[in-house]
Structure formats: C-alpha cells, structure tokens
Amino acid sequence: MITQSLSNGQPLPLIDQPSSRWQEEMRTVIRQPAELLQLLQLDPGLLPAAEQAARLFPLRVPRPYLQRMQPGNPQDPLLLQVLPLGLELQSVPGFASDPLEEANSNPLPGLIHKYASRVLLIANGACAINCRYCFRRHFPYEDNNPSRAEWQPILDYIQAHPEVNEVILSGGDPLANSDSRLAALITALEALPQLSRLRIHSRLPVVIPSRVTPELVQILGQSRLKVVLVSHINHPQEIDAEVCTQLSKLRQAGVHLLNQAVLLKGINDQLSTQVALAEALFAADILPYYLFVLDNVAGAAHFAISDSQAEQLHLQLQQKLPGFLVAKLAREVPGRPHKTLLPSSPWLSP
C-alpha cells in the first residue's frame, strides 16, 4: 500500500497498486528543508529558520514543481510559496488558525456548507504541495477525512437539502485520491438527481502534471455532471509545456478550466506579473476566475498586501486586459452568504 500524508503531516493511505507515475511523484516529494536548499544551491544560513517553521507546518515540494525554480535565486516566486521562513513563527494580531471560521459550517466530518446552492466536500486531506499561505494549514484533517463507508451520511445530507445543486471537491487536494476512489465518489454523487455540477479545486495537475491520467480524463469527461476544474496558479512561471499539455486533455474531454489565485506580497503583486499570468492562463485554455486577497491565517502574515494596493492593482489590470481575462478581486468573509468583491473601480463605492 502506498502511504501519503495529510497536509498537517498525518499519514493517509492511498489505494492504487501498483503505483502510477503521479503517485510515485507524490511519494518522493521533498520534505526536508536541507534537501530543498541544497538542490537549489541556496544559502545554508536559511536552514535553521526553515527547519523550525517546518515543524509547525511540514515542507512538501514535488520535484516537477522544483524543476521550474531558478537555482541560486532565494527570491524565486515559486520557491517563496513553499519555503518555510522564520516569519511564520511570529504571532500577528488578526491572523488566526481558522480565518474563515469553517468550524462553524462543518455539519458532518468532511462536509462544509456555507453557501445556499453548494456544499464543499473534503475529499482527501493530502496535498502534493504545502503552500505556506494556505488558509487550511491548521485545518483538522484528521477529523474531516471520511472513508467510503462514511460517505453515506454526506449523501443523505445533500439529498435532504434539495437547494444544493453543486458539490465542490476540495481538501487537501481531491486529486490525491486514486482514480478508482475518485470514480466511486463521483458515481455516488451522480446518483443524486438534484446535482448538476461538480467542481474540483486542485493544485495537483499544476505541481504534478502526470496526475492527469487517461483514467482521470475518462472519469471526468464521461460524467453526467458538468465538471469544472479550478486550478490554483499564482504565477506564470508555474505554467510550463507539460502543464499545458496535460490540462488540454481535460479541456478536450469537456472539462471547464478556471483558475483562482491569491495575491501574495513579493510574488505576484506587480502589474506585469498579473498581466503575464492572465495571458499564460488563457494560452493554456484556462479562464481567470478569482483573485483573492490573503486569508488572515496564522503563519502567513508576511504575504499580505493592503486592500488599497490590491484594488489599485486590479484597476490597472482592467485597463490592461480585456474583461474576460480579469479575475474577480475578492475575499471570503466568515458568515457572509457569498464571496465579497473588493471595489477596484472609481465608480464603485467602498
């Protein structure tokens, strides 16, 4: 049996045997800061703080993702998303372990219900990559990782809420499931006639492109549900030829491709970077969807930029790009029945 680990380091079994390429790449992710620094030829002086921060939130970097980083560059925008820093150890007022208060919308293990017409299912607690800004870096995955035997209460809950017509598979990363387990889950959801859409939020096809297997393409392409894959790409450097090739297989199978990004200080908070990201996404047949300001999660305050900076950047994007390439600037506010759009146009009141 292949064993992966949850985003918080807890072990999680996966069930495909023998392992496929993507599962092997999941198994061999870089977990030690010393190895990451050595492979990228970076200053060993970064190691003590990186090791300390990684004890709070483990390091996970897939090797295909590492290949897109520039050796010797401590400011590489992909490296900055994954490198543990001493700044994560600082306690900053207003930054909490559950910034979206998801514990208040967690009626069943693995199920989050915040919005009227859709529910979110924690389909797997494992991640291929641990992004240091992740709003679920403190999430209790060990209490929200239902087995197949525990799916039925979730299905019953959805059936008891006929206003729900969409299920969002999230995590962790839902594509950390084997193809067979994912197929079984989707089949169970398809049996609920009220459902019309299935949305999958995943970083795996970006950080480990081999995850887009022929079996996955078939599962998603043949579903009776309208399937949407929301990738999480923050910087144009994350999109290489293999990512484009693999995602195009899903697009050709009828899967709708969207992207959501997070505004991150020193990584993608420049106009030129955001323009390049939008163009690279569209070249890969992915439409920009949301551009989120940072969720105030403990350990990630050093990534935050002000709302005024975000709004000014978004206004500049509207002036540079056609409207269909401008992602909606938004944040999630606990307790609100929808995402909150930030004003970025002079004719919008705050």
TrEMBL record:
Chain's gene name: epmB
UniProt keyword annotation of Metal-binding present: yes
Keywords carried by this UniProt record: 4Fe-4S, Iron, Iron-sulfur, Isomerase, Metal-binding, Pyridoxal phosphate, S-adenosyl-L-methionine
Radical SAM core domain ranges (all copies): 112-336
Catalysis performed (reactions): L-lysine = D-beta-lysine
Entry similarity comment: Belongs to the radical SAM superfamily. KamA family.
Entry protein name: L-lysine 2,3-aminomutase
Domain of life: Bacteria
UniProt-listed InterPro entries: Aldolase_TIM, EpmB, Lys_aminomutase/Glu_NH3_mut, rSAM, rSAM_sf
Iron among keywords: yes
